[in-house]
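Q: Fold this one first, please.
A: Sequence and structure below.
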Amino acid sequence: MKKIITILLCITISVALVGQSSQGRIQNDEYLMNFKDIEYFRGGNTDEYLPIHQTNNQQSNLLKSSQGTKQCLDSLIRESWNIDMNQWVALNKSEYSYDDNGNISLAHYYTWEDSCSLWIPINRSEYSFNSSGDEIYYVSYSWIDNINQWIADYKIESSYDTIGNLILTSGFGWVDSTSIWVLSFIVEYTYDANWNLLLSTAKRWNDSTSQWIPFDKSEYTYDNNGNRLTEIRTVWLEVINDWMPFTKDEYFYNQYGIRISYILYFWSYSSQWKASSKGESSYDNNGNPELDLFFQWDENISQWITSSKREFTHNLSYSLSQLLLPPLSWLSGVNSEYTINMPVDFKRYLFVDNDWNINEKGTYYYSEVIVGNPEYSNLGFNIFPNPAKQKISISFDEGSEVEEVSIYNLAGQRDIHEREPGNEVDVSRLIPGMYIVEVTVEGRKIRQKLLVQR
């Protein structure tokens, strides 16, 4: 499932590389900061907790663009508001390239240098996918100014089971002296009967025992609808020879199964969970993320203190099927995976002295491209009504016949599968929430999001 390195994996890798200073080039805190920099470029902020919700690989596959004429997201430029100058100042830039199947193939990250008025390269990431559209590896490089070239940092390889669930992640560090990749850690994933992720366990190699030793794990719980309720992360402490709780996330949903808030807790020295931060989200009438509010817990007064917010703008004229995007989790926002229409921009505000002060903005830039076989560029896939309650009608501008329909929930589970269904599908048995409709027409798969309501 992983299309990017999650915050958990960031910390995992940094811990895994402890003691490898003679081998790996990027070490410990510097290594972790590299990951945080990448997350920041992708739309996150290291001072706002943005939980990354991991389900299984099918979800990411379903969110990819299909063939045809697309609005291609080429870059994201972030700017910060300079109070003294009373104007926007360039901050950083991300640029994206895609393969012929619409998968992200290359991402470049730059920072703006005022002294020379140039974008300075910082990081480059390369991606590769299997025939099912699963990411099988990704390699990160850092730009080294004094030698004026890219140097390998780390590599992540992923393995999947027969139905596309991520079962193993392997992390490698680059060794300059020998010019080889050295395996540094692995992460193993376990699922329940409904293919919900139950456990992810990070392990590092112990030379003295010639064994993989667990050192970090996350456990997950779900409600009856497959919505994730909690994620508890624990770390192995050798000094006590036991697992120690570290963080806990709690997630909350509306009646349609759409996530609307989370709370982050840290394990305290008093052996209890202490609230740390909270996020609340709202959506526009089309279902796109519209607003994220962030709060910090103040123990002195025992209440939540407003800290910041993000506002998002979307172009409702374009749906996901008409866009070529990186993984949705790269977009700014806590709940970016719910995105339905074209992201346009976002703005970030800080709450200071009982007032909102704009702090940062990001703008997405697109160009029109043709992806895959142009023969299928004008199929005009439409679902009506959307949102739906009982039945949906599927149509194409050129009257193409639907060969197969699959409807997946956001946990990647296939809830409906019909062959030669005609152009109408009964969705009345689906629990309210967001789904992905995958239609096979003329041998090609096309996908759109569907919101089911009651």
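Q: Good. Now the second chain.
A: Here it is, same layout.
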Amino acid sequence: MDIVGSGDAVNLSSSTGTAPGLIAELSDNAIAQSGAGTGILAQTSGTGLLDLTLASNTVAMGSSSQNAITVVSGGDGGAGQVCMDSAGNSVTATGSGNGVAVQQLGTNSVFALDNLASPFDPAAVVSLLTTGNPLLSGVTGSSVPAVATLGGTNSGFTATASCVVPAPPVSD
């Protein structure tokens, strides 16, 4: 899907902890010129559950934009849970935003990443994101290819062997 415009181009949010929560796969999208917003924003608030797969997306951000991809667990300080698998994404960011930003912010929130070698280590998270998404090299200006932010008392990213893979759509 090609998405061109301003504001947050794709905005996924989960705010209730009823299982299975929001299971989403964003793949093979082209997002361009996302004005002052974020290319892909996925977040939990409250006790939200989010299982997210990001694969082979191309996100090109303008000079006044925010991060190309932002994924947040516990954005409102809540106990949300995110499980993310990210690979093969390509980012161009020329403004003050970063390529990929992941944030574990809520006091009791959880942020699990597929194939994370060293849990609770933001540098390992950045390494995983830049290795799994080798096309983050288009990030210039004050931006960095990937950033991991911790907050709350349960601070730390955790490892998982595999997030839930979304089931294929059911046709009538």
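Q: Anything worth noting on the second one?
A: The first helix runs from residue 122 to 132.
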